[in-house]
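Thread title: Can someone regenerate the structure for this chain?

I was given the following input by a collaborator and told the matching structure tokens would be attached. They weren't. Posting the sequence so someone can regenerate them.
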Amino acid sequence: MKAIHSVRKALRLVESSLLVSALGGIILLTVMQIIMRNLKSWVTYANANYESVNIAYQIPVFGWTETLTQHLVLIIAFLGAMVAGRKGEHIAFDVFQNYVPSKIKYHFALVGACLSGLVCFYLAYLCSLITFENITDGGSFIVFANVPQWVFEVFIPLGFFVMGYRLIKVGVHSLVNRHNLKNV
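Best answer:
Regenerated them for you:
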């Protein structure tokens, strides 16, 4: 049992570390892109107005940073959803919770958690089919530095699978223990 707990703790650490790293990467890439664009703009202005200033090199504006930032946003979205699901702070559509008697609320929440988990598993399956097709066919394009797009696509089925697992786990745990559906 201690081994399972330590594996869970390590996975949570990896999950949170990936989330923080991706967010830090987005911030770093965006700031770098802003600085490089402003520097290039200034150098271009200086070359146009002062003929004595001759800068032989070009300030690079990295075009791949925008694509990488978009892919990191996708990763952050799924990692954030996984962390929110882990803490029980995910988005829940509990429309019926407000209109049913309190004796039945538990059952509605239980069915909602289990159905949501099954939908997440199904989406994970569908996304994994597309991702594996991109891996085997080599049909995905290169995002940057010879890194193919499927490297980023892997987070989609993985995220859906983890969210589905956590939702089903919440449902089963609450069914066994008959208590609150959050923070399991």
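The CA atoms of residues 47 and 53 lie 6 Å apart.
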